[in-house]
UniProtKB/TrEMBL annotation:
Pfam families documented for this protein: Peptidase_M16, Peptidase_M16_C, Peptidase_M16_M
Domain Peptidase M16 C-terminal: 217-390
Protein name: Peptidase M16 middle/third domain-containing protein
Superkingdom of the organism of origin: Eukaryota
Family to which this protein belongs: Belongs to the peptidase M16 family.
Organism per entry: Opisthorchis felineus
Record flagged with keyword Protease: yes
């Protein structure tokens, strides 16, 4: 395993590993209590760098604590006479215990403390979970554990739960996937745990004759007493508390849960549940949704113990691979079916039970496919026979330590495909985001029942132990085994004879007819050799940046500039053409972006405004163009950049070139005249967008900073003012000049012929009919002398009373060393800056610390930015400029110097993860490389270089770097921005000496209060008299006010 792993502390002091994503910096501890309860404790510091976008299914942040208890007891254990018993029990169990009732109950406690809970039941497991703020975790756990000691099970709660079950039952009946799964379950033999109504409703619970609520409660109590044993439970708790504190809570509370030796549950006697003629039929079903879907279902012996070999992941990947020569490609090319996929998952209650394993292949049928279902089934069997032959060739002939296949040109074998998939999955696993505490605890508690401890995250994701004998035997069995065919046909009744009789599935009301498997399907199944000629997918050479971290290959190549080659010398003057051939593993796709720049667009604010109008016109023209049906899956983007514009197209590889040709032919087909009404509408649209940008303080501030620090650059407000004076004639004359001499930079990535990308670049030049720009007026940094410069702007376009203050500390350089150290400073200041600038009297205060590249072109300088947005009437606004100076010069060095070794190491780990995400070519390979090409001079090793500097970073080095470049008055360069809403008064009162004195006193008191609360260790800074001297020279800070921007920008 090549991913990050951590020590998992066990009961007896032995260390075990748990495989983790590199983004996961949490601490783990495993315990097994005397009663058999297995516990996993997770300590996650507050404000950790979890990927917020990954916090699915929860509105909370990772600062919440969460707990999940999963017990091996589900609907398989329901009494025959009372289906849905387990589902009902999990719903009423959380309503309270005999110890804590009424307003002090578990649910009431959560509601009072901004918590939430959930519970659900599957075939073999029941899960209980909750989340709450860390300060209330122990109180919640105290009440949570009593639910499993002495549940109350109130009769009124049972009635409400039955009502909820009825509502969910009605939803199940109209949800095709759930209804089909219940339908398949009833095909099992009588007496099988599958042959039940698993979710239940009030009718199945009350039965006939009808049970009273008291009788139902008694049955629930009996089941609780019989099955809710500690040794069938797993518990996961995650919080910002330390592991020792968590262990203290859990050991004291959950050791009380009872162990019931007689509660062992086994369904081994039911492994032949679907070995009957009822299952191997051709079912034609009328679905709820008007969609033709075909499902092919095999029932296999249980494969749970083989999860490390992950045979169904491999088979699924091959079946749904859209590369030429595969099954999915064959069905799509012959207009039989689309969107082929496979249903299987480690945590899936239906497909991965302890009784058997279901493998389901499903696809959407075309109109042609509905008439040729037997042919489709035959093709599936043929592909399985082909794979069985390929797998058989690899038995006893594959050296798993040999990775030569990655760089030779030989076609794939089954073994090399498996090894390649193994690499791909590991690369993806390395970069997985960290989910919220709520999501993590639910997943972990369930996985603890299914996999070993080290595989809790990777067990459903990786191929950890290749087993070619298993793969061969499994695929061979599937290629010969009879199956269940389910065709969801909305118009089924229209093809019936008068004598045809529909049957009803008794719980979901699903209407269907059952037929024998067609003879043609049986004949194809029984044949020894496949009828259709298939092939394995082409090799995947470009797996991503993380592939470089695996010891198996160094064959990953970055994009190459093909215009630098001799055979394309005539195109070199236009610009660069970067190409990166990459075979997507399952669905061949490609993306092509082209950046077109002209010196004309940078000559004046008028021309920059005309450029915006031109690009918006292109956007409207393209959006009004009718697309061909085969282009529906293609996408395009159009955006304005400094000095030009960018076009990006993406989609299935085989349609990319043709779609791009249609885009550029439409975009650059100029007409002799323009409709006045349409032009006015276009100008109004651009005005609206510019006004929105001006009203957005973040966008406006970035524009102001860019304007002050770069030449040429233009203000949004100036563009908005200029817009009204531009005519149609101006626009047409500008476009002619704009497209005359151009610099063209392009990047193509994906599964394509390299010659196609070259032709797309060449076609662009011919479509525009341009010549190469002999010189482009590049955007350059303004020559700013050392010092702090203050610029105020009154935002007349503001719609609220928010004020904006920002300090932009300009980095002297933008190489990998400065990038790494600048981002490290941001990492340390992230937590402290919001605390320092807190104003208890102000609402909606927003404090941000970040590092930015202020211009999207190479050589653009970076800056560390601290911004504060707050109500313009807040007391803090009067002194905020001074507070920013005090924080940056006096407080920030103390934060850097005072961080302890553990926190500093933690910050470095977080920064390394952040850099990997920023430059990751796994999740966003195109965006990452395009950014490196356009912003970092195509330095594709940027992440590696930055991480090298982070690894060699010490607290002393970072402190010296900070003081030298950002504090020393002789070196540091800063812009202080202040943006205020329109002022009601016409003149500002000058600061009197008494006002300045009061301000200085306020700043000193504010810093004193912060240092008292922060308790920083200042010993490191005290050891460096030279650093202290630099700080003393810099503060109090004198800033120079920018009154004439023209003079300032001229240096």
């Amino acid at each position: 395993m090549y991913s990050h792993s951590t020590e998992l502390q066990s009961e007896c002091g032995m260390s075990m590993h748990i495989d983790l994503s590199t983004n996961d910096t949490r601490d783990y501890r495993y315990r097994e209590l005397e009663n058999g309860l297995r516990v996993l404790l997770v300590s996650s510091p507050e404000n950790s760098e979890s990927d917020v976008s990954a916090l699915k299914n929860s509105s909370r942040t990772d600062n919440m604590s969460a707990a999940c208890l999963c017990i091996r007891f589900g609907s398989f254990s329901d009494p025959v006479e009372m289906p849905g018993c387990a589902n009902l029990l999990c719903r009423v169990l959380t309503l309270g215990s005999k110890t804590f009732t009424g307003t002090d109950s578990f649910n009431s406690f959560l509601q009072q403390n901004k918590g939430e809970s959930g519970a659900y039941c599957t075939y073999e497991y029941t899960t209980f979970c909750f989340q709450i703020e860390a300060s209330n975790l122990e109180g919640a756990l105290i009440r949570f554990v009593t639910l499993f000691e002495c549940p109350e099970l109130p009769e009124e709660g049972i009635k409400q739960a039955l009502s909820t079950m009825d509502t969910e039952y009605r939803k199940l009946k109209v949800t095709d996937q759930a209804a089909i799964r219940q339908f398949i379950c009833f095909l099992a033999k009588d007496g099988s745990p599958f042959h039940k109504f698993h979710k239940g409703n009030s009718s199945s619970i009350r039965g006939k004759p009808e049970r009273s609520t008291e009788a139902i409660r008694q049955v629930l109590l009996e089941h609780f007493a019989a099955y809710y044993s500690a040794h069938h439970m797993t518990l996961v708790v995650q919080s910002s508390h330390s592991l020792d504190d968590l262990e203290r809570m859990i050991s004291a509370l959950f050791s009380r849960l009872r162990k019931i030796p007689a509660a062992d549950v086994s369904f081994a006697q039911h492994t032949d549940s679907f070995n009957n003629q009822n299952f191997t039929k051709f079912f034609k079903v009328i679905p709820n949704r008007p969609k033709e879907v075909l499902r092919l279902v095999w029932c296999l012996t249980c494969l749970r113990s083989q999860y490390r070999a992950n045979p169904l992941l491999i088979l699924s990947s091959l079946l749904k691979n859209m590369n030429e020569g595969g099954l999915a490609h064959y069905l799509d090319e012959n207009f039989l079916a689309t969107d082929l996929d496979c249903d299987f998952g480690t945590l899936c209650e239906f497909s991965n039970s302890t009784i058997c394993t279901f493998f389901v292949v499903h696809m959407n049928l075309t109109q042609t496919g509905t008439q040729r279902i037997s042919e489709i089934c035959g093709a599936v069997y043929d592909y399985l026979k082909f794979l069985a032959e390929e797998a058989g060739r690899c038995l006893n002939q594959w050296d798993q330590s040999n990775w030569d296949f990655l760089w030779n040109d030989d076609p794939h074998t089954f073994a090399t495909y498996v090894q390649e998939l193994k690499i791909v999955q590991e690369s993806r696993f390395i970069d997985q985001p960290v989910h919220s505490a709520y999501v993590s605890t639910i997943s972990l508690a369930n996985m603890m029942h299914r996999v070993s401890k080290e595989d809790l995250y990777s067990g459903n994701f990786l191929v950890k132990e290749t087993n070619f004998q298993l793969y061969h035997d499994l695929i061979t069995r599937l290629s010969k085994q009879n199956l269940c065919i389910i065709w969801c046909a909305p118009d089924l009744t229209s093809s019936f004879d008068e004598d045809t009789r529909l049957m009803n599935e008794r719980t979901t009301g699903l209407k269907y007819i059952a037929c024998d498997i067609p003879t043609e399907v049986t004949e194809r199944r029984l044949k020894e050799r496949p009828h259709i000629r298939f092939s394995l997918p082409a090799k995947n050479r470009m797996i991503g940046e993380q592939f470089m971290q695996l010891p198996c290959s160094n064959d990953l190549k970055p994009p190459a500039d093909y215009n630098a080659y001799d055979d394309r010398a005539r195109y070199r003057d236009y610009g660069s053409l970067w190409i990166q051939a990459s075979k997507d593993f399952e669905n061949p796709r490609a993306t092509f972006a082209i950046r077109i720049t002209s010196a004309i667009a940078l000559e004046s604010v008028r021309n920059s405004t005309l450029l915006i109008l031109f690009v918006e016109e292109l956007r409207q023209t393209l959006s009004n163009k009718k697309r061909e049906n085969y282009h529906k899956r293609m996408q395009y983007e159009l955006s304005v950049i400094d000095g030009g514009f960018e076009i990006r197209v993406s989609g299935p590889s085989k349609q990319l070139r043709e779609f791009y040709y249609s885009v550029i032919s439409t975009a650059f087909r100029r007409t002799a005249s323009m409709d006045v009404e349409m032009y006015e509408s276009l100008r109004a649209l651009v005005k609206s967008k510019l006004s929105q940008s001006v009203a957005d303080l973040d966008i406006l501030a970035l524009n102001l900073f860019h304007f002050l620090t770069h030449k040429p650059a233009f203000l949004l407000t100036e563009q908005l003012e200029t817009l009204g004076s531009i005519t149609i004639a101006d626009q047409m004359a500008f476009v002619t000049q704009l497209l005359c001499q151009l610099r063209i930079t392009a990047y193509g990535r994906g599964d394509f012929d390299i010659e196609e990308i070259k032709s797309m670049y060449d076609r662009t030049i011919r479509s525009i009919s341009c010549i190469p720009a002999t010189s482009i007026r590049e955007i350059r940094p303004t020559a700013i002398p050392p010092g702090t410069y203050h610029f105020e702007h009154e935002n007349t376009g503001a719609s609220n009373q928010q004020a904006f203050f920002g300090r932009y500390c300009i980095s002297p350089e933008s190489n990998a060393y400065f990038e790494a150290y600048n981002q490290a400073i941001v990492e340390l200041l992230l937590k402290e800056a919001p605390i320092f600038f807190t104003d208890p009297t102000a609402t909606e205060t927003k404090v941000l610390v970040r590092y930015l590249r202020s211009v999207s072109v190479s050589r653009g300088p970076g800056a560390i930015v601290i911004t504060v947005q707050l109500n313009a009437h807040s007391r803090l606004t009067e002194y905020l400029g001074s507070l920013l100076s005090a924080f940056w010069i006096c407080v920030a060095p103390q934060i850097v110097a005072g961080v302890d070794s553990f926190e500093f190491q933690n910050a470095r780990s977080h920064l390394t993860c952040k850099i990997r995400r920023q430059f990751s070519t796994v999740d966003r390979p195109f965006d990452t490389n395009w950014n490196l090409i356009s912003t970092y001079d195509a330095e594709f090793e940027m992440a590696k270089l930055m991480i090298t500097h982070v690894n060699g970073m010490t607290r002393e080095k970072l402190l010296n770097f900070f003081v030298k470049n950002y504090v020393d008055p002789g070196c540091q360069k800063s812009i202080m921005l202040k943006i205020t809403p329109p002022s009601k008064s016409t003149r500002k009162k000058p600061h009197s000496s008494s006002t300045r004195s009061a301000g200085e006193e306020f700043i000193r008191a504010h810093m004193k209060q912060y240092f008292a609360a922060a308790k920083l260790d200042c010993n490191t800074l005290n050891k460096h008299s030279n650093l202290q001297a630099a700080i003393a020279r810099a503060y109090p800070e004198s800033s120079k006010k920018i009154t004439d921007t023209l003079t300032f920008r001229q240096g």
